[in-house]
C-alpha cells in the first residue's frame, strides 16, 4: 500500500472521454449498475455539486483496486479538495476528511487500526451475543404491538426492528447513553445522505462531534467496560494513543458504520426473503442456514453501494479505463455483487445456497473490523424474526418501496410488513 506520504497539492484533471459521465443519485441502483458495468470496469460519474469522479463496478477489478499499492485513502491525494475546487458545503466532505482508519494510509493506518483492534476484541464482540438475543426478543414484541395497533395490521419493520437493534447494540458497545441514540441516528442519516442540503452538512457534523465529545468526556471521567473507555485507555507498545481528534473520528465512523450498515443488511435480507419464498423454505427445511442468507444478501443487495473515497497516486489503468492521479474513486459493492463475470448468468438472482465470496465488507488492509458483529446481529435477528412470525410478508409491492436518499447506503426508506 501507499506509504501515506502526500504530494504537493495539485489539480489533476479528470477527463471524461466517450459517453457523458453518469450522475449518481438514489434511483434504482441495480438498474444503473447494470448499465455502468456494461460500460466498463471503471466509469466516469458525477457526484453532487458536479464533482467528477470514477466508480469501479466489476468484481475482479474492484478486488484488485482495493489492494493496489498505488491507491490511497488520505484526502491529501484528493486533487479537487487540495486545489479548492469543491463547492461550499459539499455533502460528501466528511467521507474524505474525517480523521480515522478509513482515511489513513501506510504506517498511519497500521497505527490507528492497531490501536482500535486492541480495544475491538473478539471477547468484547462475543460478550454482546446475549445482549443481541435479548434485544431481538424485546423488539419482536414491539413489532407485534405496532402491527396490532395499525388498522391494516401493517408495521414498518425498518423502524420498529431493523433500526433499534443495531443502534442499541453499537451504543452499548461504545457506552453511549440512550438519551443520545435517536439524535445520533438522525445525524448519521444526514451525514450518509448524498442529498443533504449544503447548509446542513457542517451543522450536522458539528453536532455529532459535540455529542461524541460529551460521550468521550463522560467515559474519561467515569470509565466503564465499553469500547470508548478502552479506546481512551489503550496504548501501543511505544506509548502511542489516539489523539482527541482521532478518538472522535473513530467514534463517528463506528456509530455510522456500526448501525447504518447492519440496519440496511437486516432490511435487505427480509425484503429478499419475502420476494423469494422458495429460498426461505430452504432455510426452514435445513437445506441452508441463516448464515447463508446473510452472506447471499451481502452479495445480492449489499447494504453499502458506492463507498467513498480512494485516490490513485498515479494515472492508474483499471480495465479499459485510466483513472487520473488524484481523482476521487467510489467502489460499488452493489454493482460488483451482481457482476455476471464473477457469479455467472444468474448473478441477479437471490440464491442462498450459492456460497459465493463477496466484497461487501471490503478487502485487504481496510477490511471492516465490525464484520463479525454485523454478521452475528443479522443472523440472530433474522432467525428470531421468522421464527416468531413465520407468515411475515411485505405489505406493498416491491416496486413501491422507496430507496433511501443516498447512493452510499442501499436500502428502502421503509419496509412495511404484515406479520401473518
TrEMBL record:
Keywords annotated in UniProt: Heme, Iron, Metal-binding, Monooxygenase, Oxidoreductase
Q: Does the keyword section mention rRNA-binding?
A: no
Which superkingdom, per the lineage?
Bacteria
The question of whether Oxidoreductase is a record keyword is answered with yes
User: Matching InterPro entries, A to Z?
Assistant: Cyt_P450, Cyt_P450_B, Cyt_P450_CS, Cyt_P450_sf
Q: Which residues form the signal peptide?
A: none
Alphabetized Gene3D superfamilies for the sequence: Cytochrome P450 (1.10.630.10)
- Please name the Pfam families in this protein's record: p450 (PF00067)
Q: Which stretches are tagged as biased composition: Basic and acidic residues? A: 19-28
GO MF annotations for this entry? heme binding; iron ion binding; monooxygenase activity; oxidoreductase activity, acting on paired donors, with incorporation or reduction of molecular oxygen
The cross-references to SUPFAM superfamilies, in alphabetical order and at most eight, read: Cytochrome P450 (SSF48264)
Positions of the UniProt region annotated as Disordered: 1-28
**Which family would the database say this protein is a member of?**
Belongs to the cytochrome P450 family.
Q: What is this protein called?
A: Putative cytochrome P450
Originating species: Streptomyces himastatinicus ATCC 53653
Lineage of the organism: Bacteria, Bacillati, Actinomycetota, Actinomycetes, Kitasatosporales
